[in-house]
Amino acid sequence: xxxxxxxxxxxxxxxxxxxxxxxxxxxxxxxxxxxxxxxxxxxxxxxxxxxxxxxxxxxxxxxxxxxxxxxxxxxxxxxxxxxxxxxxxxxxxxxxxxxxxxxxxxxxxxxxxxxxxxxxxxxxxxxxxxxxxxxxxxxxxxxxxx
Length: 146
Known about the structure:
It is a single chain. It contains seven helices and three strands. The chain has a domain at 37-110: Winged helix-like DNA-binding domain superfamily/Winged helix DNA-binding domain (Arc Repressor Mutant, subunit A). The protein has helices spanning 16-35, 41-53, 58-65, 69-81, 103-112, 115-119, 127-145, and strands spanning 56-57, 85-88, 98-101.
């Protein structure tokens, strides 16, 4: 069962597996600081985009966070139920769903500024290695979007 023919499907030779396992572990470590905000990791990502860019359509938001409508719609409904966002259909175009922060969602930003500090040291890498890793991942992601 061993041999060169099967080297390509050995787990230790895969790039996708350490990416997956590392991402899963980092998200797990976010759980504690995000529990204090009442958010899941994916909800946190959505909120960061809204804090940065303000009101936008569901489609625009989905593109920024790399989520399709089937995943994003229920997440936004939960955030609305929690009072963090408002989902609005403009009278001028009822096909478009606009997402805007509620007052509570905007206020949550103050607590959220503590999350990055809580996550510092999550990866045991030097600051230079972290910059390199982010640069490479950003480049790979951008090329996948082409």
